[in-house]
Amino acid sequence: MGVFSRINNMLKAKANNALDKAENPIELLDQKIKDMEDDLHNAKLSAAEVLGNVHFLEEKKETSKSQMEDYEAKVKKALSMGNEELAKKALEKKIEAEKQYKHLESKHTEAKEKAEKLKNRLADLEKSILQTRQYRDEANARLNTAEASQKVNEILCNVSSDNINLDDIERKISKKETTAAGLEDLKPVGLDDEFDKLNEVDLDAELEKYKS
């Protein structure tokens, strides 16, 4: 395993350890998004320099092309006037301009390819930031739901049958009711109670009426 691979594994292990210790993983995601946005900002600055170089080389290339065409026209003009010596000088300048043009054209093409790759990497980074933001929102919703469910379960556990035995409560109430009924039987009969008994209907006598 190479040195860089070991370093990368160490960094991953530290990141995982930080995640395990974090009380709020959403804060870690927020920090990750911020770091990615900082990287994007710096990458855009670098890309701007590369794109600026592309435009610079393009201008230099076009200038060199114009010079090349200008000297070529002078070669033809000198020959048409029978001045070969002047035509040679113009041709020499034309060849130099042509070499410069080809050199700048190669550099311009190379710079454009680098710029295109940078644009693609920027687009990928922007896409990653968007996906991370979406995951952060989903994770936050899941975390809130999990925390709410945990609180509900804790409440339900606190009011479980282990803490409050309904059968014991029912026995205590029944005992109170039985005691109250026993005390009612022990209560002395008063004058009003005796008159109330006189008004009570004799069910047996009433039933005999139906038989006759």
Automatic annotation (TrEMBL):
It holds the Pfam family PspA_IM30. Residues 19-135 form a coiled coil. It comes from the Bacteria. Keywords: Coiled coil, Plasmid. InterPro entries: PspA_VIPP1. Belongs to the PspA/Vipp/IM30 family. This is Phage shock protein A. It comes from Clostridium sporogenes.
